[in-house]
Specification:
The protein has 317 residues and is an alpha/beta fold. The two termini are 31 Å apart. The protein is 41% helix and 13% strand.
């Protein structure tokens, strides 16, 4: 009983920031988002073939899923793909915490299935993975992925699913020019060898690699990302300047180059979008082909910056 291969657009769209409440200082991004603005984002994305939306219960404790459903209202369910996650740290104490969390997500997103359902963190692979099997059999979950898992944890999840005729179809880890631990640990190579889709999140390092921010123009005060990144912006200047120059030759931004780099590495970047013009940037990035020398140069500059952007929730790979 194998599922059909996972087919997705070149870039997935992330909705982490859609979970912010809009109150100053609340949430990771401090975003103030309107329902009409997000509907405009969806319309522009879909007309450009960007149809995979990645969310999670953990993003604003369900607010992101609810906002996404509102923005997608009126779109035919077959026109887009939904990706959401089971987060072990938020598990309830019923008989089936994984199924329960999925049901709540389906309810918030006003759908009867998700295209991709992830175990968000590897709290206990042997405990949580088996619960995915009945969800796959029922059709409520079309494909299964694992996020923030190392090679050993991916293999264990794959073995458990394999006994029921399924497999881990996708891996989603933090992967950017500044954070290449999944590559160094052999996870990218594993995914290539087994035809597993690797989704890279935080490709733009929450804005620090967009070229929009610098020591003179730091990230917005009061947001979590300002605390994490403002102190290292001086060390990123040479890298982001070079990304900007490479982008300029191709009518794209530094952010577009960061996204194009992730595509060049054989991954599917998940890019957070909150404004319609973000979609224009993603479309431009999708069309950029970086030369091998450019990829190597960017990675050398990133290594020279010598920063650690591993999130507090992430284990070493």
């Amino acid at each position: 009983m194998t599922s059909k291969a996972l087919t997705v657009p070149a870039v997935a769209l992330g909705t982490w920031a859609w979970g912010d409440s809009g109150e100053a200082g609340d949430g990771y991004f401090g975003s103030r988002l309107s329902a009409s603005g997000l509907r405009e984002v969806v319309g522009k994305a879909h007309s450009n073939g960007l149809t995979l939306w990645d969310t999670a219960v953990a993003y604003g404790m369900g607010r992101s899923e609810t906002a996404l459903a509102q923005a997608l209202a009126g779109c035919h369910r077959g026109e887009y793909q939904l990706s959401t996650k089971f987060t072990p740290q938020l598990a309830g104490d019923g008989d089936d915490p994984v199924g329960d969390m999925l049901e709540q997500s389906l309810d918030r997103m006003r759908t009867d299935y998700v295209d991709l359902f992830w175990i968000h963190d590897p709290a206990d692979v042997a405990r949580w993975t088996p619960s995915l099997i009945p969800l796959l059999r029922s059709g409520k979950v079309k494909q299964v992925g694992v996020s923030n898992h190392n090679l050993k944890e991916i293999a264990l999840a794959d073995q458990i699913l394999g006994e029921a005729g399924f497999r881990v179809e996708a891996v989603q880890n933090h992967y950017s020019l500044l954070h290449r631990s999944s590559e160094r640990a052999g996870i990218l190579a594993h995914c290539r060898e087994h035809g597993v889709r690797f989704f890279s999140y935080m490709v733009l390092e929450q804005g620090a690699l967009t070229g929009r921010y610098s020591p003179a123009h730091p990230l917005p005060e009061g947001s979590n990302r300002a605390t994490v990144y403002n102190g290292i912006l001086p060390r990123l200047q040479e890298l982001t300047d070079r990304m900007g120059a490479i982008g300029k030759d191709r009518g794209a931004s530094a952010a577009g180059v960061a996204i194009a780099w992730a595509i060049a590495k054989g991954t599917t970047p998940i890019v957070g979008v909150t404004k319609a013009d973000h979609i224009d940037g993603v479309v431009r990035a999708r069309g950029i082909e970086l030369a091998d020398e450019e990829v190597a140069e960017l990675e050398a500059l990133a290594d020279a910056a010598d920063v650690d952007t591993r999130g507090w929730w992430e284990n070493e790979m």
